[in-house]
Write a structure and sequence with these properties.
The protein is an alpha/beta fold. It has twelve helices and eight strands. It has an eight-stranded parallel barrel, surrounded by seven helices. Helix 4 packs parallel to helix 6 and helix 6 packs across helix 7.
């Protein structure tokens, strides 16, 4: 049972194209705008949409995403609200949707219920930042009868053993964190990234997408050839912060995403 993520990324690879995966925090600044942004990403022919599940202690995220988390949580956003949004979006678009978040809210929701409700809503993948593959047995077991991918992060510090575990337990794609630190950081080193991805590809055959620190078309041009695609997040949230009106947010996001996609 192949997921929408696997089908989309396989199709891109077959056509020698790269994936462009935008990230936004669900419910920031409100669910209505999140919905409209998903449709904008679909219009721009993005490969997968990564929706951040707000959490009170997002340790891997930089200040921009942390602020987005705070705003969404202050408005009382619940995990169920995100699933309802995905369900609504599914009436209009088939774009693959990946939920990225932390284990605590998912565990509290109940893993079996999580798997069932995500599947019914039309979620295609889960990336749990603070759940390493060796500790994901319960979640993997809950997901086994659904086409939902479990995606893992690998970093410059990942050992061969960790890479092998990500291969054994993961599906859909592998998310390579291009630098140590938090999201939105700079100082990308393409040579070092190329070496790391070459090492990972010895063990992992599924697509590898690079994220963290990618904010300009020049970054995409340098990094996309090294892997199967790129993930871009903090810079999109920055547009949401600064654009002002909803109309301007949507216009500027579309313009930015298209400029980044053209650099692939």
């Amino acid at each position: 049972m192949k997921s929408r993520i696997t089908k989309k990324l396989s199709s891109l690879k077959l056509n020698k194209q790269k994936a462009f995966i935008p990230f936004i925090t669900a419910g920031y600044p409100n669910l209505k705008l999140t919905e409209k942004l998903i449709y904008t990403f679909a219009e721009c022919d993005c490969s997968v949409v990564e929706l951040g599940v707000p959490f009170s202690d997002p340790m891997a995220d930089g200040p921009i995403i942390q602020k987005a988390n705070e705003v969404a949580l202050k408005k009382g956003l619940k995990f169920k609200d995100i699933l309802n949004l995905v369900k609504k979006v599914r009436k209009k678009t088939d774009i693959p949707i990946l939920l990225m978040g932390y284990y605590n809210p998912m565990f509290k929701y109940g893993l079996k219920k999580l798997a069932q409700d995500c599947n019914q809503a039309g979620v295609d993948g889960l990336l749990v930042v603070d759940l390493p593959p060796e500790e994901a047995t319960e979640l993997k077991s809950a997901l086994k009868n659904s086409p939902i991918d479990l995606i893992y992060l690998l970093a410059p510090t990942s050992t061969i053993d960790r890479i092998k575990l990500a291969k054994k337990h993961g599906s859909g794609f592998t998310y390579y964190v291009s630098l140590t630190g938090v999201t939105g950081s700079a100082n990308l080193n393409p040579k070092e990234i190329a070496q790391q991805i070459k090492k990972i590809k010895k063990y992992i055959k599924q697509p590898i997408n690079i994220g963290f620190g990618i904010s300009k078309p020049v970054h995409v041009k340098k990094l996309a050839p090294l892997a199967d695609g790129v993930v871009v997040g903090s810079s999109i949230l920055k547009i949401i912060n600064e654009a002002g009106s909803e109309k301007k947010v949507l216009q500027q996001t579309k313009k930015y995403v298209l400029s980044m996609r053209q650099a692939l």
